[in-house]
Amino acid sequence: MLETERHRIILSAVQERPVVTVADLCALTGVSEATVRRDIAQLHIAKKLRRVRGGAEAIAPPQFVGINARPFAVSQAINIAEKRAIAQAAVDLCEDGDAIIINGGTTTFQMVHPLTTKRLQVFTNSFPIAEHLLKQSRNTVMLPAGAIYREQNIILSPFDDDGSNHFYARRMFMGCRGLGPLGLMEGDPLLVQAEQKLIDQADDLVVLADSSKFSRRSSLLLCPLTRIHTVITDDGIEDRAASMLEAAEIRLIVAEVAASDRQKRAEE
Amino acid sequence: MLETERHRIILSAVQERPVVTVADLCALTGVSEATVRRDIAQLHIAKKLRRVRGGAEAIAPPQFVGINARPFAVSQAINIAEKRAIAQAAVDLCEDGDAIIINGGTTTFQMVHPLTTKRLQVFTNSFPIAEHLLKQSRNTVMLPAGAIYREQNIILSPFDDDGSNHFYARRMFMGCRGLGPLGLMEGDPLLVQAEQKLIDQADDLVVLADSSKFSRRSSLLLCPLTRIHTVITDDGIEDRAASMLEAAEIRLIVAEVAASDRQKRAEE
DNA sequence: CGATTATGATTGAAATTGATTGACTTTGGC
DNA sequence: GCCAAAGTCAATCAATTTCAATCATAATCG
């Protein structure tokens, strides 16, 4: 990992939320605390961020859309370490030049940090993801037409023909509300609409689902398991859930949660 | 392998991704590290890329969007008082509930401030306008499909059928590069494309043009004067320009520049 | 053919990184 | 308010990586 890459990731993380801890940045960059501290000190001198005890904060208050919005913020906080590890594993699947689709959601949003060091074509219906990638990375960003829904933070057109169907990608990344034998469940009808629009624009459907998602159910079935190509989850997944995916011939990727974060989680 | 050949490969690699390591470039070019380093040093001096420890990166770091972006920022500063007054007059034409289209540009961007207190349906191809309205107002925000162009800060689809044609509005607001007898002139081909897409989606075309625009010309003609319904300008407009608009039966609104700002302008 | 230039290898210098240590700060309980 | 515990930080050092300088060889040019 080059120094400039780390700096990009750190700045990206600092923009996302009011403060980031040194441990957060270690997990995000994969380097030691000492290096993160040195980087923060450098960026502080360069006035790219403000150094505070325990971590760093953005130099300017202007925040991204939705991160401060209530519904986004609360689910943002839970299982953050797992989501980060899963998102990292998702980005690891991509190579520079790839065209991908990222569906809106708090898990998929975590992909923006590792994405800052990539150069992809990203099609997303998530306004915060688009905004972040636009400001913090050199990726090409493409959007569907539609109205921006504030609560869900997604762009959704009321029309079937909204131009998004011109964009095809190798992979589509999406989160979900729950993942069971019936298939992929979603909680919000609006999200179902948005996801169904995109789901046929990609060859492989990659689902990002932390291990808690396997025990959650919902009333809205988005698609059957057979449509899913890959599931990325954390190492808290139970054997039963793994067997279910295996039976459906779904590729399973288990992301390792960073040790520092794991400890933190165990203590809580 | 010729030197110029290597340089081409190196530059291309740097453009493709945010950073490349020396090892990457060795593999790509098949030459030794020493040569790659020498090449990077050369290109660094020639300002074709930036040399960083471990490799090289593109010379222009991720361009930031919005009012801080360079190309945006410079034109943002000039005639700011006039632009504000014009934008205010433009927003005064709107009533809560109206559906309007706002084309991207620095003059039209000034509309976001008076718009914060309104409740309109705003369709815009400008990412900064959408972002601002989303964060600072309760207006409904709608976007066309397409890629986000960083320099122009607009969203533009490469396809004719991009879903934006589902949105119709009473008025479309746009800026311009120049306004002459031939019609409305624009400076950037990309802007022409974006504007031509929208121009037929509204009944009335309202052009925001500060008085300096009447003496500017450009090579790209966007539409004839007859298509324009209203022009909003500042009180620096000359009689000759006003007569031209009158002859074309265009409604002319002259926005009063606030006294305090006028003074500021005089001082400069 | 000689001279100039480009290339690759070698080597020592310099910078970066991660771990360790001890000092300092904050937090929570009493 | 005081103390202990945990957390945070700066300084240091060793290991690694990266860089620059040098030199020998190969290629190019006049």
TrEMBL record, chains A, B:
Residues 3-58 form the HTH deoR-type domain. SMART domains: DeoRC, HTH_DEOR. Keywords: DNA-binding, Transcription, Transcription regulation. GO terms for molecular function: DNA binding. It comes from the Bacteria. This is DeoR/GlpR family DNA-binding transcription regulator. It comes from Paracoccus marinaquae. The lineage of its organism: Bacteria, Pseudomonadati, Pseudomonadota, Alphaproteobacteria, Rhodobacterales.
